[in-house]
Amino acid sequence: MAAFRGILAIGIWFLCIPFSVYCLPDTTVVCKICNGINFSYRTPFRQEMNSVLNELGSVIPYSYNLYAQSTNSGQGCYGHAACDGRLSHFDCDLCLQNERGDLLNGCSSKTGRKCSL
Prior knowledge:
Layout: H1 2-16, E1 31-34, H2 44-63, E2 65-70, E3 77-82, H3 89-106, E4 113-116
Antiparallel strand pairs: 1-4, 2-3
Helix pairs in contact: 2-3
């Protein structure tokens, strides 16, 4: 009888453990368009682009929709990032980090890009 109670207590304990599922968001690129205008890496535009990407990356996980611009050197660079409001801040940030890496690798010397994940 004591063995049965022990097994029953262990069974109830396992049923009381909260079950949670953790998964990463799907960051598959759905649509990517790069324009045909190239720029050199050692130009002010590259600095402007990095400034815009840094601003978008630091704020978008908390606002879900942001426009940023940088015109410090006279060459304007504009950016827009938006996350679906159903995403958590963590998932939004992760998607934006993945997109930034893909932007710098996939359209590295292009002045414009549109992408959807």
